[in-house]
Amino acid sequence: MSESKDPPIRPRRNFYGRIRGKTLRASQKAFLEEDLGRFSPGPVSWEENPERVPLDLQALFGKRPVWLEIGFGGGEHMVHQATLNPDVGIIGCEPFINGVAMLLGKIRRGGAGPDRLRVHPGDVRDLFDVLPDAGIARAFLLYPDPWPKKKHHRRRFVTPEHLEPLSRVMCPGAVLRVATDIPDYVRQTLEQVPRHGFEWLARGPADWRVPWDDWQPTRYERKALREGRRPHYLTFRRL
Ligand SMILES: C[S@@+](CC[C@H](N)C(=O)[O-])C[C@H]1O[C@@H](n2cnc3c(N)ncnc32)[C@H](O)[C@@H]1O
Questions:
Q1: pLDDT in tens, 122-144
Q2: pTM over the 0.90 mark
Q3: Which long-range contacts does 31-34 make (Cβ < 8 Å, 24+ apart)?
Q4: Active site residue: 123, 133, 145, 214, which one?
């Protein structure tokens, strides 16, 4: 008798961030309508992919190593990394549709195509469901939402709900970069990330005070600096 597997049960996922901001300009609407489809990584949402069939990263990017940027904001860092690293494929993920439109505008101006870049305009938890084990060689979590109130700390990215699947999709030796300007976020990151199969690579203060050599400041970093907050750059390796 053939074994029939029960379909996966859709988890309840609250999303507390913003999905829409200011009214999109006509050009931004055009980027979304005309370009977003080309940059799709394949079926990610539960509606499109209720069986949670994993994405075929090799079909998307060939033999290129695959990097992931979680919450890319306006996309400046993602486009910068794509320009610096033509031999890498990058999947970016961002539920804030105005940010997605900004990224697509930058891609149009910058030239990198869907053979190297893919965009999931939604929650990274849905993307994690359909990423194969150990497929990601580098991940960026840059200025994640700080959720400053103690009662909201469980909404932060650096919680088991996110770190368990992140750890599963990253390959041994893969690098995870976290940037934040919030000291309590540093505390929670250093406490939680190593519990999920990562080691912190810092040897001395310069390792968290000085940006990475290939760094591109993001919109949130500029805001933090304007407001007098100090960035921290944390580098982890997946064991
Ligand atoms: C503080 S902003 C930083 C944006 C950008 N990385 C930067 O440094 O300018 C945090 C971003 O994470 C995104 N975000 C929040 N929750 C997310 C999730 N579950 N999946 C993907 N992105 C998420 C938000 O929409 C927001 O754009």
A1: 999 999 999 999 999 999 999 99
A2: yes
A3: 31/101, 31/104, 31/105, 31/108, 32/97, 32/100, 32/101, 32/104
A4: 145
